[in-house]
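Annex B. Sample input.
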Amino acid sequence: MKSPSLSGWALSLASCLACTLAPPAASAAELELQGSRLVVSGMLDGTMIKEFTEQLGSGAVHTVVFEDSFGGTAEAAGAFADAIRASGVQTEVRGQCMAACAYAFLAGKTHRFGYGLQVNGILLPVAQRPTAAELAVRWRGDEAHKTLADFTPTAGTAAKPVEASAAPVAKDNWQPDHGVLFTASPTLFGRIYNTYYCDGTQGRDFSKCERLADADPYKLGVLTP
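Annex B, continued. Sample output.
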């Protein structure tokens, strides 16, 4: 994959992505209620869906905060997203939100990056590199749900396991390192937003991803004002 052409502060930012966005060992999802904010961390593997849905159903939660959630399954992403959409709560990312977490995040009535000195980032998995036209609508409203369906087995059809040496195919193409990465980094002059396409070959070194021009997360609907 062609390396991005970055200069000045952009190069410094890209160089730090590998350390700031590299996830630790995977852990199951954890929930913590902080007043009207429900903090979700860890993998969205389905183990906490029942408790998560009950918490939102109580009416006491106004904002779901995803904090350093490094992926999960497409099915869990859909279940979390359905619960968020039905309750009408807001969503927020603090730190990292990858793959399954990113689609659940988009289901919020409003969806934003949290404040603070940390680098915030969300990586939305894609089956292939999106065109400029696809980027403009891909993660708006119902389109995010349709995109998630690309990774979810059809009703009554179990997903077939993919051999480690085999190329991923449709419905089995849920790769946590392959997607469009949106980042926000704090500086003395405010936050700097960047968007990258990662084809998966970079592993956890996100500084090797291709920087996308004209892909502001607010204009694309990934973040709301």
